[in-house]
């Protein structure tokens, strides 16, 4: 009897997590062929490869025509160790999955198991975390924010307040579009500190954490922002494609009015986001590589997002009602509070970002906006995972929910196999936003490199696809001492 219990314990602790991790790696291997490595990612990797940290004050150029800070260059120093996009994609997605898990896990084993499955076998999460597109890389900062927020506010670990500034500054240090994340983090952290003013001194109770937080903050300020501002020509900040500006409205009433209008749209947006190919950043919808059956299967898979979103809202509101009744013992207050907080964060980010002037209007569902919004996908995963555990269900209801979640993961795996096989082995009749498999790009590079002994000269032909300022920007700034890099936007042709 003792040996049987010990075997089951070891199975739960070691074998099952190891099996999930192994299949998760294979799942990421499938998606490494579909990962997106284009000109924007190429610029980041090239600067990271050829320039030292102190000699690369900027990353690529943002859509308004302003250079991004260099945090992406610093983080990409690890990636230049790999000589394969496949390996790089697997490494990126696996490391982010591990970090996300340790940021969001709790003491509840069933929740951790569910969270681990979502992080391991959610096709869209793996797709988003398999590349270094700046819009999507903010995803991991959202998880870090939730980690610090809950540890501080719910578990009273006040010494973690030392990390509020560094978490706040990270998104905008990665790319300027992360300003909305930085602003939201700042407002929430300030509110928490104000509500906890009686314990303000506890924020400095740990010399170690205060020292680490201060060191990280000063390092980012010096390496990223000091280098940024001593090298930038402030006239270049005026080069913008749309003429818009940050905080474009002069009256508070304008912001309130637009905020109310966005709030009215939010419920419909929330239910439909990620629910079909037109409502998700999915460049493969423009490719001609996939069969109709695979496209239909993927469309069916996305419907689960709508079910999960609807379930989350119903679970939160019914949980609030039941928590104030005689059946309140059936409610897990911790998961209820976390679900509410996560839903609130999704709401604030969705409604506030379009009000900032340069922020995208996610409600339009255009591909650029959906690319930016993909960074919130981890918030949705966390919302779904916590909402499943708000109620302490009986065995029958828990089995039904488990069956629903399991079918989602099985469909993810089956769909990913079909997508990878058809994307890799089908021939396109035209070039699309979905690009081509990463292995083909590597074969082209190997072919070219095999014919020359010297460096290959590459010409980037910049097309005025979206941003009219592109050619003017390069004409004015390309030869300047601090613009020693190649900037490209949207479409680029490479002539060797």
DSSP E strands, number: 2
In round numbers, the mean pLDDT is: 82
Low-pLDDT ranges: 239-243, 459-467, 477-496
Strand content: under 5%
From the N-terminal CA to the C-terminal CA, the straight-line distance is 71 Å
What does the largest sheet look like? 2 strands, antiparallel
Task: Output the structural class.
Answer: mainly alpha
Q: Quaternary status of these chains? A: single chain
The secondary-structure element order is HHHHHHHHHHHHHHHHHHEHE
Major β-sheet strand ordering: 1-2
Helix content: 55-70%
Overall, the morphology is globular
Contiguous helical run count: 19
Q: What would your notes on this structure say?
A:
With 496 residues, the chain is mainly α. 60% of the residues lie in helices and 2% in strands. It contains 19 helices and 2 strands. Strands 1-2 form a two-stranded antiparallel sheet. Helix 8 packs antiparallel against helix 9 (164-174), helix 9 runs parallel beside helix 11 and helix 13 (292-322) runs antiparallel to helix 17. The chain is globular.
Provide a short characterization of the protein structure.
The protein has 496 residues and is mainly alpha-helical. It has 19 helices and 2 strands.
């Amino acid at each position: 009897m003792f040996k049987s219990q010990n075997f089951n314990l070891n199975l739960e602790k070691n074998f099952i997590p190891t099996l999930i991790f192994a299949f998760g790696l294979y799942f990421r291997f499938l998606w490494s062929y579909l990962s997106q490595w284009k000109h924007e990612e190429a610029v980041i990797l090239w600067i990271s490869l050829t320039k030292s940290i102190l000699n690369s004050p900027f990353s690529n150029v943002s859509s308004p025509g302003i250079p991004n800070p260099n945090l992406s260059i610093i983080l990409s120093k690890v990636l230049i160790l790999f000589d394969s996009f496949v390996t790089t994609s697997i490494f990126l997605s696996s490391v982010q999955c591990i970090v996300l898990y340790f940021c969001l896990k709790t003491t509840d084993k069933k929740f951790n198991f569910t969270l681990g499955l979502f992080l391991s076998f959610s096709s869209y999460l793996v797709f988003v975390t398999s590349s270094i597109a700046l819009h999507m890389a903010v995803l991991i900062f959202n998880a870090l924010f939730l980690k610090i927020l809950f540890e501080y506010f719910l578990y009273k670990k006040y010494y973690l307040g030392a990390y509020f500034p560094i978490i706040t500054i990270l998104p905008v240090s990665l790319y300027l579009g992360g300003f909305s994340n930085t602003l939201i983090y700042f407002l929430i952290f300030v509110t928490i500190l104000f509500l906890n003013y009686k314990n303000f001194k506890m924020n400095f109770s740990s010399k170690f954490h205060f020292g680490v937080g201060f060191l990280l903050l000063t390092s980012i300020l010096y390496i990223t922002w000091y280098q940024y501002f001593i090298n930038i020509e402030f006239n270049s900040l005026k080069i913008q494609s749309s003429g818009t500006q940050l905080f474009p409205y002069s009256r508070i009433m304008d912001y309130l009015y637009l905020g109310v209008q966005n709030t009215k749209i939010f419920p419909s947006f929330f239910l439909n986001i990620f629910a079909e190919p037109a409502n998700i950043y999915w460049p493969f919808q423009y490719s001609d590589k996939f069969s109709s059956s695979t496209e239909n299967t993927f469309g069916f898979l996305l419907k689960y997002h709508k079910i999960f979103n609807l379930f989350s809202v119903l679970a939160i509101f019914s949980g609030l009602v039941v928590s104030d009744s005689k059946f309140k013992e059936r409610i897990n207050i911790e998961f209820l509070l976390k679900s509410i907080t996560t839903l609130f964060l999704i709401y604030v980010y969705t409604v506030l970002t379009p009000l900032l002037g340069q922020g995208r209007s996610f409600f339009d569902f255009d591909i650029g906006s959906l690319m930016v919004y993909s960074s919130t996908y981890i918030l949705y995963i966390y919302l779904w995972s916590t909402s499943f555990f708000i109620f302490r269900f009986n065995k029958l209801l828990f089995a039904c929910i488990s069956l629903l979640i399991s079918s989602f993961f099985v469909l993810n795996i089956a769909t990913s196999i079909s997508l990878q096989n058809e994307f890799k082995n089908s021939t396109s009749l035209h070039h699309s936003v979905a690009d081509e498999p990463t292995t083909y790009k590597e074969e082209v590079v190997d072919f070219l490199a095999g014919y020359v002994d010297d460096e290959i000269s590459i010409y980037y032909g910049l097309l005025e696809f979206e941003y009219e300022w592109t050619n003017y920007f390069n004409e004015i700034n390309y030869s300047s001492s601090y613009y020693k890099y190649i900037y490209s936007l949207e479409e680029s042709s490479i002539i060797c």
